Amino acid sequence: MAKKTIKDVDLKDKKVLVRVDFNVPLKEGVITNDNRIVAALPTINYVIENGGKAILFSHLGRVKTEEDKAGKSLKPVAERLSELLGKPVTFVPETRGAALETAVNNMKDGDVLVFENTRFEDVDGKKESGNDAELGKYWASLGDVFVNDAFGTAHRAHASNVGIASTGIPTVAGFLMDKEIQFIGEAVESPKRPFVAILGGAKVSDKIGVIENLISKADKILIGGGMTYTFYKAQGHEIGNSLVEEDKVALAKELIEKAGDKLILPIDSVCSKEFSNDAETLITDGAAVPEGYMGLDIGPKSIELFTNELAGAKTVVWNGPMGVFEMSNFAKGTIGVCEAIANLNDATTIIGGGDSAAAAIQLGFADKFTHISTGGGASLELLEGKTLPGLAAINDK
Ligand code: ADP
Ligand code: MG
């Protein structure tokens, strides 16, 4: 998956189109978390420092109707970016037209411009999300080279990524995108072994593709979270009121058979009668969950088992929390796995997945991982071994 990066193109005097991920949380026009803007700075600074003109654009939220546009402008983002860069940033409140073209043509080397939310083009017939060819062509016409740095949308074919690239304009990965390709792509394609995958979260159905792809690639697959109980049911255990996907029990059985010793299930659970942090908890002795109870976290013996299974791992990919980590009574499994991973020597450790990344950050382990993916859906599809249209559209090395 060797893709060209921003380092492979000449940027001097060039109009550089940069698809960034500025999809930041906003509350009444105020940015509540600017992580994504900060994360885009290396690519933006690289363009500026190398004498390019940085033309930046992104989606922000979902926009379907004219009313949806309220509070979804990229203007506050452009202002915050200007503060972070310590230099003026031109904001154009349009996604096309004469004002945008004039502003672009007036740019000097090292200038930065942000134009309006690409999804504003969805109001009149889903042009951005539907990858309207004419729109992609128009945006491509504004620049000389295209840098795609928005990994979070790489699993979607939109006008602002695939549409622009498919006009044939030189298309390269920005630093953020490149990091995701390096870490997740290489972990799955050519991992240093032993390679241990940890899969949890709510549902088997969300993770089937990942489990199937990793069965042939990982040395071990540790299962936790809500999906445990569908596997338990497949093995004939009592599961009480635990989360279960009845229509996936047969599939779970198949996966258990296919994976053999590779697939490792928890050996105990932290249970409760209610989905609440106030209800009493009970730790099972073995897999079976008693009647009236639901399994909400892996138990202490499972943490020990998983810690032992992780020992010596050189590559770890983790997707999906081990329990309902949002409640402190059921966060110990996820914390335990975070600790086990943090204690590994000389291992590449990767988290892909929105809630797993949030869990690791919330529980204070953010700096203990080699890489925390910025794209939930996109990283999941990469782990499934799927071809991401946004990645495929980047020029090969
Ligand atoms: P990710 O976003 O990392 O891919 P998921 O979205 O698949 O993860 O799953 C995350 C959710 O799974 C969390 O909100 C967590 O509370 C829930 N979860 C974990 N374990 C259980 C369980 N035993 N029962 C019910 N929900 C669970
Ligand atoms: Mg999730």
Which strand order spans the largest sheet, edge to edge or round the barrel? Answer: 5-6-4-1-7-8
Number of helices in the DSSP assignment: 14
Terminal residue distance: 9 Å
What is CATH's topology name of the largest domain? Rossmann fold
Give the integer mean of the pLDDT values.
95
Characteristic terms for this protein:
single chain, transferase, 6-stranded parallel beta sheet, alpha/beta, elongated, Rossmann fold, binds magnesium ion, 14 helices, Phosphoglycerate_kinase_sf, ADP binding, Phosphoglycerate kinase, 397 residues, binds adenosine-5'-diphosphate, 2 domains, Phosphoglycerate_kinase_N
Summarize the structure.
It is built from 14 helices and 17 strands. It is α/β, with parallel strands linked by helices and 397 residues long.
Describe the structure.
- The protein has helices at residues 35-49, 75-85, 98-105, 133-141, 159-165, 175-189, 204-215, 228-235, 249-259, 300-310, 332-342, 354-362, 376-383, 389-392; strands at 15-19, 26-27, 30-31, 53-57, 90-92, 112-115, 145-148, 171-173, 195-199, 220-223, 263-264, 269-272, 281-283, 294-298, 315-319, 348-351, 371-372.
- It has 397 residues and is of the alpha/beta class.
- The chain has two domains: 6-176, Rossmann fold, CATH 3.40.50; 183-383, Rossmann fold, CATH 3.40.50.
- The strands form four sheets. The chain has a six-stranded parallel β-sheet with strand order 5-6-4-1-7-8, sandwiched between helices. Strands 11-10-9-15-16-17 form a six-stranded parallel β-sheet, with helices on both faces. The chain has a three-stranded antiparallel β-sheet with strand order 13-12-14.
- Helix 7 runs parallel beside helix 9.
- The longest helix is centred in the N-terminal third of the chain and has 15 residues, at 35-49.
- The protein is elongated, with a radius of gyration of 23 Å.
- The mean pLDDT is 95.
- The chain binds adenosine-5'-diphosphate and magnesium ion.
- Adenosine-5'-diphosphate binds next to strand 14 and helix 12.
